[in-house]
Design a protein that fits this description.
The chain is of the alpha/beta class. The protein is 39% helix and 15% strand. The strands form two sheets. An eight-stranded parallel beta sheet has the order 1-4-5-6-7-8-9-10. Strands 2-3 form a two-stranded antiparallel ribbon. Strand 7, helix 8 and strand 8 form a beta-alpha-beta unit. Helix 3 packs parallel to helix 5 and helix 8 packs parallel to helix 9.
C-alpha cells in the first residue's frame, strides 16, 4: 500500500476492543512484487494495533500465480521460509503461517497428484488448496479471471477427488451467483472439507448496483442451502473488496468499527445462524481488504458484531474453528 493510503487509513483510529481475546486470522497473504510488497514487516505493522493475534493462515496469492506448475510450489516454499525468519523474537508472539493454503490446478485432473505431493513436501504446514473460480458475464464485476462452471467440469472433479487421499481441504472464492455450483460439489463430496471464502461474494456493483436488498435475499437463500452440507465451513470477511459495492474505499476517511459492524452484521449473523459458530471463522483478508479499512478497526467490528454470543461461540468464531479446520 502507498504512503498516501496509509495516511488515509490513519484518519480513522481506534484502540483495540477486548485486546486479550485470542485470535487466529485464517486468511491473509504475503507477496513481494515491484511496488507492491506485503511481507512480515508490513503484516506486523497492521496486526500491531493491539489485538491478540496468536496464529495466522497464509492463503495463496492470485497475483503471484503463473501458468507453470512449479510456481505454486515455489510460493509455498517462499512463505515457509519467510515465516521462519526469526518471526517470534523479531516481531512478537504471533505465529505467522501456522497453516499454509496453496494452489494446484484441480482442472488438470489426476495429474494434480504430483503437485499435491510436492506441496506437502514443501512445508509441513501445508493444509489445503485454494482455487478461485469467481466468474461473471459482466466485465464490470470480474475480480479475477476464470471460466464459467469450473466446479462442474469433469476434469476438475477428478482433481478435486484427489484431495481426500492427502487429507487436504478445498477452499474457493466465488460470487453469490455461483453458490448453487458449490452446493452441488459439496453434496457429492461429503468427505472433503470445503471452505467458502468471503461469505460467498455478494456483488454490489455493475448490474447489482442499487439492488442490495434483492442480492441479500438471493444470497441468504443460497447460504441457507449450502449450510445443510456439514462438510462446508465459511469465512466471515471480504466485504471490504470494491465489488461488494459499499464504497468505503472512495470516502475521505475510512469508516469506524461501529459503522462497519452495522453494515456487516446482517451478513455475518445470518451465516452464524445457518452454519453455527463451530463452522464459521472471522478473517481479515489482508492486505486486500486494507483498501477499505485498517486491521485494528476491522477486528473491532467483528468483536462488536459478536458481542451477543456466548464465550464458547466467540472462541469458535475468533480462534477454535480455524485451528480445528486447518489442524494447527
Amino acid at each position: 500500500m502507498s504512503i498516501e493510503h496509509e495516511d488515509w487509513l490513519a484518519r480513522t483510529k481506534e484502540d483495540p476492543i477486548e485486546p486479550e481475546l485470542p485470535i487466529c486470522d485464517p486468511h491473509h497473504h504475503l507477496w513481494d512484487q515491484p511496488d507492491n510488497r506485503y511481507l512480515l514487516e508490513e503484516l506486523f505493522r497492521d496486526i500491531g494495533g493491539g489485538h491478540n493475534i496468536v496464529q495466522t493462515v497464509f492463503v495463496e496469492s492470485q497475483s503471484l500465480k503463473k501458468k507453470d506448475e512449479a510456481q505454486p510450489i515455489g510460493e509455498t516454499k517462499f512463505v515457509h521460509r519467510v515465516s521462519n525468519q526469526n518471526a517470534r523474537w523479531q516481531y512478537g508472539k504471533t505465529k505467522v503461517a501456522a497453516g499454509i493454503v496453496g494452489f494446484a490446478d484441480l482442472a488438470s485432473g489426476n495429474a494434480v497428484n504430483a503437485v499435491l505431493r510436492a506441496q506437502l513436501a514443501a512445508s509441513d504446514r501445508f493444509r489445503g488448496i485454494r482455487q478461485i473460480v469467481s466468474w461473471h458475464a459482466c466485465d464490470d464485476v470480474i475480480f479475477s479471471p476464470s471460466q464459467p462452471r469450473v466446479l462442474a467440469d469433469k476434469q476438475f472433479r477428478e482433481g478435486f477427488a484427489c484431495l481426500q487421499e492427502y487429507g487436504l481441504t478445498f477452499e474457493t472464492f466465488l460470487y453469490h451467483t455461483q453458490l448453487a455450483e458449490l452446493l452441488d460439489l459439496a453434496m457429492v463430496s461429503p468427505d472433503t472439507t470445503i471452505i467458502l471464502e468471503h461469505i460467498g461474494g455478494p456483488i454490489g456493483i455493475g448490474p447489482y448496483e442499487k439492488k442490495r436488498d434483492e442480492v441479500f435475499r438471493e444470497w441468504q437463500s443460497s447460504i441457507a442451502e449450502l449450510a445443510t452440507c456439514p462438510n462446508v465451513v465459511i469465512k466471515l470477511g471480504g466485504l471490504g473488496m470494491p465489488f461488494c459495492g459499499f464504497g468505503w474505499n472512495k470516502r475521505t476517511a475510512p469508516p469506524d468499527s461501529a459503522e462497519l459492524a452495522e453494515a456487516m452484521a446482517p451478513y455475518y449473523l445470518w451465516c452464524i445462524e445457518q452454519f453455527g459458530a463451530e463452522r464459521c471463522m472471522f478473517e481479515s483478508n489482508f492486505p486486500v481488504d486494507k483498501e477499505s479499512y485498517s486491521y485494528t478497526i476491522l477486528w473491532n467490528a467483528f468483536k462488536r458484531i459478536s458481542k451477543g454470543f456466548s464465550q464458547e461461540e466467540r472462541a469458535a468464531l475468533f480462534y477454535n474453528t480455524a485451528v480445528k479446520v486447518y489442524r494447527l
